[in-house]
Amino acid sequence: MEIIAYGVLADERPLLREAFDQAFGGHHEPRCLKLFLNRDTAPTAAGHEVVLSSVNDTLDAEVLRDLAMGGTKMIAQRATGYNNIDLAAAREHGLTVARVSYYSPHSVAEFAWALALAVNRRIVRAAHRTREFDFRLDGLMGRDLNGRTAGVVGTGKIGTVFARIAHGFGMRLLGWDIAENPGCVALGMEYVPKERLFAESDLVSLHVPLTPETYHLVNADMLGLMRENAVLVNSSRGGLVDTDALLATLRAGRLSGVGLDVYEEEAGVFFLDKSLEVMTDERLARLMTFPNVLVTSHQAYFTRDAVGQIAAATVRSIEDYFANRTSDDTLLRHGR
Predict the structure, then answer these.
(1) CA distances from 194 to 116, 225, 238 (A)
(2) pTM score, whole prediction
(3) Cα separation of 229 and 212, whole Å?
(4) CA-CA to 163 of 20 to 30 Å: which in 18, 24, 281, 287?
């Protein structure tokens, strides 16, 4: 069986190959490509029964049609989110689709805190200064987190770990989700309407999936409710934040800091070297100009632990496909 993987990062490749070797003993080696899957690159999948996709690949109706016509029967997404896959079209073409429903929640939660601490304590600006032997403290004053309020939007596995860390800092916890998580309640979290969460929190961190209901959850109205010196962190999905509304808020001098590991138009930019090109995305370029904004390139999940677990889960989904069985990672199932 031919297997092709798209958007494979250099540090990910050995972990992916190790997972395949352990499961198949070298009988099924994936063809690993750096390029992303989209309408232009879909023809490269011809003859490959299984496609391993990444979160920044485009699997719309046209791409899925081309994949099916080329002989693809299964798509295994190496991520938890799958908003980039047109499931209705996949069903129409008889494709099996799987994703990774679980990997280390600590990887993302810890990175979200790294963003929060970095923007609160002006660490990036301080590092740039000291590299030039400028050791002044002007403009670097932050705030204690102890005793302040953390608003956790989405209290699943990652949100719960984030809340535990906030509890360790001695913060008051507010939460918003479709259902209360007993583990968060045990930490003292109070579940409130999202409007109250945004209005009362000193730090808001996003941990919900991107769905039609959560698209632009953080819009002008929600940003208008936030305290002027609050911190916003998004390590989940870029589409949760209305970038235009965020830019307007920042231009008005509101928000103490913003940490973004994701961006709603990141496809075709993140994971790539654009240093020698003109940045044509004016909104992203504008975000970079604010001294209180830190943008990273969707790396919150990127630990050896998490990537290894993602690779192992992807291989298990392929084994399930071989055996005509399903698991919690299966989104669509069709026979071989």
Answers:
(1) 20, 10, 18
(2) 0.92
(3) 30
(4) 287
The tens-digit pLDDT sequence of the chain (336 residues) is 799 999 999 999 999 999 999 999 878 889 999 999 999 999 999 999 999 999 889 999 999 999 999 999 999 999 998 989 999 999 999 999 999 999 999 999 999 999 999 999 999 999 999 999 999 999 999 999 999 999 999 999 999 999 999 999 999 999 999 999 999 999 999 999 999 999 999 999 999 999 999 999 999 999 999 999 999 999 999 999 999 999 999 999 999 999 999 999 998 899 989 999 999 999 999 999 999 999 999 999 999 999 999 999 999 999 999 999 999 999 999 876
* C-alpha span between 107 and 111 (Å, rounded): 6
Residues marked active site are found at 237, 266
CATH classification code of 105-295: 3.40.50.720
- Indicate where the chain has its CATH 3.40.50.720 domain(s): 3-103+303-332, 105-295
Q: Is 123 helix (H, G, I), strand (E, B) or coil?
A: helix
SS3 64: helix
Q: Which residue has the tokens 């911190």?
A: 231
Superfamily for domain range 3-103+303-332: NAD(P)-binding Rossmann-like Domain (3.40.50.720)
Q: Give the number of residues written for the chain.
A: 336
CA distance 273 to 25: 34
